[in-house]
Amino acid sequence: MSAVRFLLDGAVVEVSDPDPTGTLLDHLRIRMARTGTKEGCAEGDCGACTVLVGELAGEGVVWRAVNSCILFLPMLDGRALMTVESLSANGPTPLQTLMAANGSSQCGFCTPGFVMSLHGRSIGACGSDLPVADAIAGNLCRCTGYGPLLAAGEAMPPCPRDDSGVVAALKAIRSGEGARGQYQDRLWFAPRTPEALAALLEEHPGARMVAGATDVGLWVTKGLRTLETTIFLGDVAGLGVLEESDAGLTIGAGVRYADAHAALARLHPDLGELVRRIGGLQVRNAGTVGGNIANGSPIGDGPPALIALGAALTLRSAAGRRTMPLEDYFLDYGRQDRRPGEFVESLFVPRPAAGDVVHIAKLSRRFDSDISAVLGAFRLSVANGRVTAARVAFGGMAATPRRAPACEAALTGAPLTLETFERAAAAIRSDFTPLTDVRGSAEYRLDAAANLLIRLWHRTQGRAVSVLDLEPTHG
Fold it and tell me: Alpha-carbon distance 158 to 84, whole Å?
């Protein structure tokens, strides 16, 4: 099938021979004249382009607020779409009336994005259990009018939808075999099974796999790159598995961070707090745990924490599967241990033992929706006042997310004292030679990494070391 079909306001929209890396935002504004959805940053950072996308989940529909500026059109196939124009077919909604009455709109440019994020929260979309401030953290108001926006969100009661008609319509347009197409000389595929994905990778070993496009989208919108062959992973069965057990947590590569949030928080509260700060809700509603790993960014927030917890990664190809410690996947900057034809299938994260000391901390210039300058993750096993085992990992300190072997050696077997932690903190300088960039100098990163370890010792003594230690952890 060389067309993309989606549901918009009850009607089926079919786009024949779409540009596989054309964005939904451009299609809405240029092709459909739905100009209520705005372009602010074209990189998924400001939320002005927020729309709601619904997908089948059993006999229901899960709605998600997403950034249309980095969502490629084929990713919408078989789904439902709601734009700001969708809300006002019969006049302003109660939310829009409330926002108009309390002055939530100033210049108005960002307002449609806020409306969509808050509307999603009111109808029970993914993330609707979050505080209002978290639900709109991915929406920026340049007029600094957040007070009325927060008040409107708090005052809006839940308004559950009857999506029975949407369910029936989505079932009718969903393709069982998966979509594919050609645009000019570029190919794109949207397989439905792991076997089909493996076969495509054998045939097209250089294809670019796309899950949430929260990184790849910027390659196109900002880097103006052309992707010759693209494989979209959003409909591959099995990649969405999320299973909790006494042993730990199994996460399919296609599980979005928003869906993994609660399970990761149950594994350890610091993981929940970390996920809360990975982009805004729109980014977490699109970005996947597996994608964050697979692209190998040295400043990806998930990998250092998962490495410290001892996670194992499973890759799959037509030839079979292989599993490795997560840290072994990252070879060098831009290089990962993924052979031709392989794809990341799943991740297993062991549950920390009852006596383990775990701490995960992200340092960034801005609290919300910012990239880490340094991310430190620590898991210590302690018995009889001594550290019996240590796993320490950092992001932002090297060309890859990486463990700190000298630091770990200084901790292992040593007494749980401040002197031990000070020696281990000093050893970090022999583990890393970080870069200086816009997020921090090399010296800042080394000092910050060492201080995170010292802060951990103070936390083991029950001391509050930051305002976050005085507040309930979000999970």
Answer: 18
SS3 at position 100: helix
Q: Is residue 475 predicted with pLDDT exceeding 60?
A: no
CA-to-CA separations, 35 to 39, 49, 109, 113, 322, in angstroms, rounded? 9, 10, 11, 12, 47
**pLDDT interval class at 1 (50, 70, 90):** low
Domain containing residue 285: CATH number: 3.30.465.10
Q: What is the pLDDT of residue 468?
A: 55
Q: Are residues 382 and 340 in the same domain?
A: no
DSSP 230-278: EEE-TT-TTTT-EEE-SSEEEEETT-BHHHHHHHHHHH-HHHHHHHHTS
Would you state the structure tokens that stand for residue 313, as one six-digit string? 């990664």
| CB contact set of 48 (below 8 Å; sequence gap of 6+) | 37, 38, 39, 40, 41, 109, 110, 112, 113, 139, 140
Give the three-class secondary structure for 346.
strand
Q: How confident is the model at residue 473 (pLDDT cuts 50, 70, 90)?
A: very low
pLDDT at res. 462: 87
**pLDDT beyond 50 at 472:** no
Single-letter code of the amino acid located at 287 = G
Task: Provide the CATH number for the domain around residue 11.
Answer: 3.10.20.30
Distance CA 392, CA 181 (A): 45
Please provide the distance, in angstroms rounded to a whole number, between the alpha carbons at the two ends of the chain.
Answer: 41
Same-domain status, 157 and 19: yes
Last residue of a domain, one of 176, 201, 221: 176
The pLDDT assigned to 466 comes to 66
CA–CA separation, 45 and 366 (whole Å)? 13
In this structure, what token pair is assigned to residue 210? 């796309």
- The answer on 150 and 12 residing in a single domain is yes
Predicted TM-score (pTM) of the model is 0.94
Rounded Cα distance between 438 and 124, Å, is 38
Q: What is the mean pLDDT of residues 104-129?
A: 95
Domain end marker among 327, 350, 373: 350
Distance (Å, rounded) from C-alpha 310 to C-alpha 211? 24
Is residue 470 pLDDT above 60, yes or no?
no
In a domain, 67, yes or no: yes
